[in-house]
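lol forgot to send this yesterday, sorry. struct tokens for the thing we talked abt
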């Protein structure tokens, strides 16, 4: 099962991110799109708490609120540079 901290790694692999990565027009663009699609499906499973195959605005906002709370390590209601450094994207391990 994926953990919430994997959100950014997954999000960075969406088809949009793949297209914006600088090599959207090339031999590997189809594989980037495939990777993005698989990652997007995993993100859907993380956010879809009622398991209906869709993410409602309420589910999306609850997920993002929890992410904000996780990143706001000093609990001041704002994200600073130090806290945002946690956003560094790392590849997902195959065993997650």
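and heres what i got for the seq, position by position
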């Amino acid at each position: 099962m994926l953990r919430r901290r994997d959100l950014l790694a997954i999000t960075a692999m969406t088809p949009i991110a793949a297209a914006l990565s600088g090599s959207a027009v090339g031999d590997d663009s189809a594989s980037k799109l495939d990777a993005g699609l698989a990652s997007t499906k995993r993100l859907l499973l993380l956010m879809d708490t009622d398991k209906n195959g869709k993410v409602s605005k309420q589910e999306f906002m609850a997920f993002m609120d929890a992410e904000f709370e996780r990143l706001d390590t000093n609990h001041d209601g704002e994200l600073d540079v130090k806290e945002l450094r946690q956003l560094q994207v790392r590849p997902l391990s195959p065993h997650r």
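Confidence is low (pLDDT under 50) at residues 12-25. anyway ping me if u want another try
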